[in-house]
Amino acid sequence: MMLSFRHVGFAVLLHAALFLLLFTGIECTPKVEEPQVIQGVMVNPAQLAGAELGPVAHENPQREESNPPVQSQQIEQQAQEAQKQQEQEAARQQAQHDEEVRQQQEAAAAEAQKQKEDADRQAELVKQQQAEEAQRQAEEAQKQAAAAQAEALKKQQQAAAAQKAAEERKAQEAAEAQRQIAAEEEEQKRAALDAKKKKEAAARAAAQRKQAQDELQQELGVEEASSKSVTISDWQTQLTAAIKRNFFLPPGTDSSMKSYLKITLSTSGEVLSANVATTSGSLIFDESVKSAVVKASPLPLPRDPSVFDPNITICFSPEPRNCQSQ
Which of 28, 147, 286, 296 would you label with 116, given CA atoms 20 to 30 Å apart? Predict the structure, then answer.
């Protein structure tokens, strides 16, 4: 947890107060006063007894005269020894007191030094943590700036790529449109060139069919040929009706238009191919007829399987009478 300057200051003030109270307590410690020297006189109990007896004490005056000097000397020696002991005791107590004071002062100084070192360490730790935090914030800001710059560069590159892609797409679309126009023009030219050939081929095919029908009638007889002709006509009517149900008249075209289509069928009536044999003169109309043929697949089959022709050419017009006129 990061320490604030307020916490450090409070800790320093608290240690200073404790240090002050420690020295104040040392100064308030009562000093040991030296005991007063009491001088006394040693009294011989015998003298006290003699003084009480009165006359008896005077029986040996010589002895009384000889004892006082000895007693005085003894008393003086005892007093000197007592004083010396008191002085020694006082010196010992003073030395002990001085040692205690010195130890207390050393302990207080050591505690103050320890507190100062702790405060210095805490301050250094706070300073180091602040420096590390500042460095971390600077590195984070640098990373964010680098990330923002990279993001801006990425967006710029993406915008440039998007613009280039849009330009390429527009160019491709323009080229495709031009290609489609050219293809349509080429298709129209090719259709116009093929129309005549297809018309001639259709005429030849019609002549061949008529010849074949004539030959068939000659072989099978007029009655059978007539019956098959009716069957074929009915089948073509069914085919035309199926195609008409899926036909859509394009805008700009006339319902009087008609197209001849060559259709290839499978035995189940599936349309394998559908091509314009004789154009109506409108490419859009012809394509709409081809699309209707494909959508109508499978086409109905004739009632008589013997008249089934996988390659048939039929005339189609929104108005059936237009095909019956020819």
Answer: 28
Least Cα distance to 298 among 251, 249, 263 occurs for 263
What are the boundaries of each domain within the chain? 5-28+36-143, 206-324
- Type of residue numbered 37: V
- Contacts of 314 by beta carbon, 8 Å cutoff, 6+ apart: 236, 239, 240, 243, 260, 261, 263
- 3-state SS of 135-169 is HHHHHHHHHHHHHHHHHHHHHHHHHHHHHHHHHHH
Query: Angle between the 5-27 and 61-245 helix axes, to the nearest 10 degrees?
Result: 170
Question: In terms of Cα–Cα distance, which of 119, 130, 131, 129 is closest to 8?
Answer: 119
> Strand pairing partners for 273?
264
Pick the CATH number of 206-324 from 1.10.10.10, 3.40.50.970, 3.30.1150.10, 3.90.20.10: 3.30.1150.10
Write out the two tokens for 38: 């009491």
Q: Kindly report, residue by residue over 143-189, the tens digit of the pLDDT.
A: 998 998 989 899 999 999 999 998 999 899 988 988 888 888 888 88
pLDDT tens string 39-60: 555 555 555 444 444 444 444 4
Complete DSSP assignment for 90-147: HHHHHHHHHHHHHHHHHHHHHHHHHHHHHHHHHHHHHHHHHHHHHHHHHHHHHHHHHH
- Of 190, 204, 192, 202, the C-alpha closest to 281 is 192
Instruction: Report the alpha-carbon distance of residue 64 to residue 110 in Å, rounded.
Output: 68
Per the CB < 8 A criterion, the answer to whether 254 and 288 are in contact is no
